[in-house]
Amino acid sequence: MATRQLKAIARLHSAKLLLPRIRTPVYGSSVPNCALHTSARTPQAQPVSAGKHSSAFSQGQSTSHIYDVVIVGGGVAGTALACSLASKPEFHSKKIALIEAFDLAPVKNWTPSENVYSNRVVSLTPSSVSLLKDIDVWRHLHQDRIKPYDDMQVWDAISGARVEFNTSMLGQGSADIPIAWMIENVHLQNGILASVAEHNSKGAKMEIIEKIKVSNISYEKNTDDSATGFDLSDWPTVELSNGQKLKTRLLVGADGANSPVRNFANINSLGWDYDTHAVVATLDMDPLRSNDTAWQRFLPTGPIAILPLKNGVSSMVWSTKPHLAAAIKALPEDSFCHLVNAALRLSTADLKFLYQELVENPESFGSLIKEELTWRESVKLKSKTDSEMREIEFSVPPNVVGVQKNSRAGFPLRLRNAERYIADRVALVGDAAHTIHPLAGQGLNQGLLDVQKLSEVLKMGVRNGEDIGHIHLLSHYASNRYGRNVAMLSACDKIHRLFGTELAPIVWARSFGFNAVNAFEPVKAEIMKYAMGLEQSTSDVKRSTDHN
Amino acid sequence: MLPQMLRGLRPLVTKTGQVRALSQLSTINAEEVQKFSAKSAEWWDPHGEFGMLHLMNPTRVSYIRDRIAPIAQDSTPFKGLKMLDIGCGGGLLSESLVRLGGNVLGADASYNNIQMAMLHSRKDPALWTGPGQLEYRNTTAEDLLAEGESFDVVLAMEIIEHVNNPSEFLRVCADMVRPGGKLLLSTISRTPMAYFLTNFLAEDVLKMVHKGTHDWSKYIKSEELREAIHSLQGGWQVDDVRGIAWNPLRGRWVVSEKNGDIGVAGIGSLEVNYVLTASKTEFKFFAIDTQDWLGSSQNCAMGGQPY
């Protein structure tokens, strides 16, 4: 009666596949494949009593190489992801490792030295700062070593058109919100590692494997695990230079622009190289002027940005043609400072002449630039009233008075975007996923937004008992980040191209656009919110609250 | 009666939290593995016929978690709970419950399904290293009841619409729930909307699943299920009923935010998929000579308490 009727119990299609009722033995107490074997051979076997396999033994050695998450790359994105996961109780019972090829001791032991700043700095947006607060990094940072700014001046060298951004225009109560916070990368990473250590002291088990390279990543036939009965043939196997092999449920590539993880996952990176190099340097500025503004001047050869680090110290990013970048980088200190001041003040015609001299007569460039700058400036200020001179002076950054030793460096500019951010059991974050033109200072911030979204998605996966390497789960990360990153990449690319031209109609159009934007506050506020990541964070909050 | 109930308390697996009996693992029956691994891979293919079910799984697990352990913040909220996943299929739900710490029995009347589930469970060591415990059995609900099995939580997800005598199936499932425990069901309502989506669209037009997967006449309306549960022996009450719907814009299944909201946009006649939680009254008189196990059973069967 009921027996016959209930035999039809099956999920979805299983009813069709009903076979003679065969009881399979309990196999929680034995092993998966063993049970399969047994059931096939002895279909009528009675359930094995639970106590029968009491000869249980510790599996410690043979499962110690099995990880839930392996993060490759100990840069800002990689360590921030490690920290974000370690900060969540859901991951305390998970086995997670971060692998970094270099020694992290110099980062861990870093201490600020007054007035000397690293040339690798980042401008953190409010959404990045809120992530850093959420994962307990912010309070590990030296607050007096972080420079917030709430004013940004962007102007076009050809037309002189100017946009000034100030957070006071965001509306009531936002007057004291900085646009961004300047911080040295090494300082940020120092704070992240300190926070990871603290999370570890509170129950997290974040393993940091440093000074060890990843020598190979592959899928392995299940030979190693025949002993345990597991089938991990679709789990990535990470081979380390010390011979260790890690098998992982999820492999995260935070391993930079030439990501080996991305190569392993057969994901192409699309994009192009700009015919542009960036020169970075730490500058000593006129200490008599306050230093609370970020400056960016668009030159036909690329933008030059001066970002405040503290009173009297700023960071420079000057994007220009590769041959000029090389020459600028090699200049004697005083000539270099004069040229930077010239790039921020002189007309594009004057600059063209200076570039020509720089390349053709490098020996005499030192005396030339000094004279040129003084003369051009005096002409510009001739017959101006005091207040007019003041206005001119305050429309450009403070004078550069020195450049810090060994702070000059150069690198080529690229735009890259991985064709996918995920594959089965693989996710890419930061530069491994995308490399952006630095003109908006968004690269590292994009990476931190990746970290925030990925860790949120993984947390949701753990809460729902999902396999956190599964493509269905990871697709929530990719679908959230891909479009946003592409939008930011292409916006920065278009700005680069727009300002790379001296064609009159385009110059006219862009200066009209600049002046129009400057005159129309609501538009400026929207642009600024976008660049500050504010739009992003509010929509994310909405998403996460209605997520089920 | 009592000995029978106590027998039901036998742990499904011993609680050592270790992977065991490694010596036996080296003997794999290659033929059997080969036969089922293709089937298993097909069942578990994220983009295959069961794709929609895979996508529904996190949503329904999230619902189960909210009903059973709403406060727990850790990764093993079901730790110590004995759970039955009746009609476990390829083990989709069972695996998730084990990862969340549950002591899970996945049961299915289909031998094939059980083999696929077992084979797939080898792909995740976390299912075997504890604290969650997993067992699959090729058996039926009524046989489990006859063997005296009982559970803190019985889950009959997407199954009651496939059985021949749903009210008898419901009674058998309910009888396996320990006093203070919970019964969770999810199914499809017998509305024109459900016919349109599951029979016409999914089977005939989009061919997402093969013809005959769904039998509209077997669908049960949420009101009918609610009444059937209230008429069960043993002091049953329905705690919660909600609709669960595919949101094409967000690419995921979403459970209604409010208890009682079942149909699309809250319209009862538009109800399609829904999920229901019922709880069984605790009988204090059992405590007289079985203080020990009832105590643990109460703790486990919580009803919203942290553990």
UniProtKB/TrEMBL annotation, chain A:
A GO MF label: 2-methoxy-6-polyprenolphenol 4-hydroxylase activity
Question: What does the record give as EC number?
Answer: 1.14.15.45, 1.14.15.46
EC top class named in words: oxidoreductase
Question: InterPro entries from the xrefs?
Answer: FAD-bd, FAD/NAD-bd_sf, Ubi_Hdrlase_CS, UbiH/COQ6, UbiH/COQ6_monooxygenase, UbQ_mOase_COQ6
What is any Pfam family matched here? FAD_binding_3
Alphabetic keyword roster: FAD, Flavoprotein, Membrane, Mitochondrion, Mitochondrion inner membrane, Monooxygenase, Oxidoreductase, Ubiquinone biosynthesis
Q: How does it sit in the membrane?
A: Peripheral membrane protein
Highest taxon in the source lineage: Eukaryota
Instruction: Describe which pathway this protein belongs to, using the record's wording.
Output: Cofactor biosynthesis; ubiquinone biosynthesis
Where is it found, in Gene Ontology cellular component terms? Answer: extrinsic component of mitochondrial inner membrane
Q: Which Gene3D superfamilies match?
A: FAD/NAD(P)-binding domain
Q: Which reaction does it catalyse?
A: a 2-methoxy-6-(all-trans-polyprenyl)phenol + 2 reduced [2Fe-2S]-[ferredoxin] + O2 + 2 H(+) = a 2-methoxy-6-(all-trans-polyprenyl)benzene-1,4-diol + 2 oxidized [2Fe-2S]-[ferredoxin] + H2O; a 4-hydroxy-3-(all-trans-polyprenyl)benzoate + 2 reduced [2Fe-2S]-[ferredoxin] + O2 + 2 H(+) = a 3,4-dihydroxy-5-(all-trans-polyprenyl)benzoate + 2 oxidized [2Fe-2S]-[ferredoxin] + H2O
> What are its cofactors?
FAD
Q: Indicate where this protein resides in the cell.
A: Mitochondrion inner membrane
Domain called FAD-binding: residue spans? 399-481
Q: What is its main location?
A: mitochondrion
Q: Which family does this protein fall into?
A: Belongs to the UbiH/COQ6 family.
According to the record's subunit comment, the protein's assembly and interactions are: Component of a multi-subunit COQ enzyme complex, composed of at least COQ3, COQ4, COQ5, COQ6, COQ7 and COQ9.
What is the purpose of this protein?
A: FAD-dependent monooxygenase required for two non-consecutive steps during ubiquinone biosynthesis. Required for the C5-ring hydroxylation during ubiquinone biosynthesis by catalyzing the hydroxylation of 4-hydroxy-3-(all-trans-polyprenyl)benzoic acid to 3,4-dihydroxy-5-(all-trans-polyprenyl)benzoic acid. Also acts downstream of coq4, for the C1-hydroxylation during ubiquinone biosynthesis by catalyzing the hydroxylation of 2-methoxy-6-(all-trans-polyprenyl)phenol to 2-methoxy-6-(all-trans-polyprenyl)benzene-1,4-diol.
Q: Output this protein's name.
A: Ubiquinone biosynthesis monooxygenase COQ6, mitochondrial
Taxonomic classification:
Eukaryota, Fungi, Fungi incertae sedis, Mucoromycota, Mucoromycotina
**Source gene?**
COQ6
UniProtKB/TrEMBL annotation, chain B:
Which cofactor is essential here? Answer: Mg(2+)
**Residues engaged in binding S-adenosyl-L-methionine:** R60, G87, D108, M157
Residues the record lists as binding Mg(2+): E158, E161, H162
Task: Tell me, in one coarse class, where this protein mainly resides.
Answer: mitochondrion
EC number per UniProt: 2.1.1.64, 2.1.1.-, 2.1.1.114
- Indicate the family of this protein: Belongs to the class I-like SAM-binding methyltransferase superfamily. UbiG/COQ3 family.
| Primary role | O-methyltransferase required for two non-consecutive steps during ubiquinone biosynthesis. Catalyzes the 2 O-methylation of 3,4-dihydroxy-5-(all-trans-polyprenyl)benzoic acid into 4-hydroxy-3-methoxy-5-(all-trans-polyprenyl)benzoic acid. Also catalyzes the last step of ubiquinone biosynthesis by mediating methylation of 3-demethylubiquinone into ubiquinone. Also able to mediate the methylation of 3-demethylubiquinol into ubiquinol.
Please describe the quaternary structure of this protein: Component of a multi-subunit COQ enzyme complex, composed of at least COQ3, COQ4, COQ5, COQ6, COQ7 and COQ9.
Q: What is this protein called?
A: Ubiquinone biosynthesis O-methyltransferase, mitochondrial
Q: Which organism is it from?
A: Umbelopsis ramanniana AG
Q: Which gene codes for it?
A: COQ3
